[in-house]
Design goal:
The chain is α/β, with parallel strands linked by helices. It is built from 13 helices and eleven strands. The strands form three sheets. A seven-stranded mixed sheet has the order 2-8-7-6-5-3-4, with helices on both faces. A two-stranded parallel sheet has the order 1-10. Helix 8 (204-207) links the parallel strand 6 and strand 7 (214-219). The protein is globular and about 55 Å long.
Length: 365
């Protein structure tokens, strides 16, 4: 069997190591996972109740259009139902955009250290990825704009950026959008937007009316705590949504996911509390990194990228043996690890383990 030539060397996405796997491999009873930017406080109690109530309907196919959830989300965002499409996580929306719009040889622009799924989906469709270096961990919008050609189809901006956690301020984003040709799609990935407290941050939804070439991606996997149910969404003009819908599978989100997301969306008090706790956790970790004399990028999501001053893979392995799972392997930042902001207790356990590991590795802290 002969696969498409452009996928032969395509790397397989490597998620954070599962807790169960680490326990089994290393014989550990207690493991803290701070690798996949999950909400350490879980989902809203009302979301859990809605999911349980839906268990009696498992024999039924889900609503392929997610009509009730779409209507509720449209009201929450201040848009029309025709502006919204749901996917199996926002990852699927990325794949659907690539499927709907890329032809072999088309060009797409992204940062050189950002969410890897942009490039992998472009590769699958035979598009050419133009990777523009970050500037101090932040999207270099001027450099990205300079790489636009007549073959450019899509520009990807992850805001906050994963893995660095930096943001593009609203003023810079608007200047960029004003300069991008109207025929080039700009995908603004705001998976972590609900965590951001910086007043300079842009709300991509509010920009949609002024920029018909803009697509905003969001998810219920992060602050809403529904990562296991895989449900995310895209917001754009009805024309773009209609085209993406043409390549969407008919039942791509489950009944459980729709019910959980609907209840989670209604519980904005829980979202606000998770945001508050996350902000406190960021301050806790930043204070400890400063004490240990470790440089880090500004954190605007629910994770921090920190320089451990040794090969990140070595620190990752040493932490793993202490029951702490983080993320390493960022090709352009070989001495940095990315750590999810956990609860106060989880953060304390991580710092204790990290300090021990650094001392064993000969790092002056």
């Amino acid at each position: 069997m002969n696969p498409k030539p452009n996928i032969v060397n395509l790397p397989v996405y490597k998620p954070g190591k599962p807790i169960e796997e680490v326990k089994k491999e290393l014989g550990l009873n207690d493991v803290i996972k701070l690798a996949s930017n999950e909400n350490p406080y879980g989902s809203s109690p009302s979301a859990k109740a809605a999911i349980l109530a839906e268990l009696d309907n498992l024999y039924l196919y889900p609503d392929g259009s997610a009509a009730e959830l779409t209507s509720a989300l449209a009201g929450h965002l201040g848009v029309q139902s025709g502006n919204i499409i749901f996917g199996c996580g926002s990852d699927e929306i990325i794949a659907l955009i690539a499927r709907a719009f890329f032809l072999p040889g088309d060009e797409t622009i992204m940062a050189d250290q950002t969410f890897s799924v942009y490039k992998s989906n472009a590769d699958i469709e035979g598009a050419v990825s133009i990777e523009v270096p970050l500037a101090d961990g932040t999207h270099d919008l001027d450099a990205m704009l300079a790489r636009v050609t007549e073959r450019t189809k899509v520009i990807w901006i992850c805001n906050p950026n994963n893995p660095t956690g930096t943001i593009v301020p609203e003023e810079a984003l608007i200047t960029f959008l004003n300069a991008v040709p109207s025929g080039v799609m700009v995908v603004l990935d705001e998976a972590y937007c609900e965590y951001v407290t910086d007043l300079s941050y842009s709300n991509g939804i509010k920009l949609l009316e002024s920029y018909p070439n803009l697509v905003v991606l969001r998810t219920f996997s992060k602050i809403y705590g529904l990562a296991a149910l895989r449900i995310g969404y895209g917001v754009a003009s009805p024309q773009i949504i209609s085209l993406i819908n043409k390549v969407r599978e008919p039942f791509n989100t489950s009944r459980l996911a729709q019910a959980g997301a609907l209840a989670a969306l209604a519980d904005q008090e829980y979202v606000q509390e998770c945001r508050r706790l996350n902000s406190a956790g960021i301050l806790q970790l930043q204070a400890e990194f400063k004490r240990l004399d470790l440089a880090f990028f500004p954190a605007h999501g629910n994770f921090i990228m920190v320089d451990v001053r040794k090969p990140a893979a070595d620190i990752f392995d040493a932490l793993l043996r202490r029951g702490i799972i983080v993320r390493a392997g960022h090709k352009l930042y070989p001495t940095y690890i990315r750590v999810t902001v956990g609860s106060a207790e989880q953060n304390k356990a991580f710092i204790t383990a990290l300090e021990q590991v650094l001392q064993e590795q000969g790092v002056q802290v």
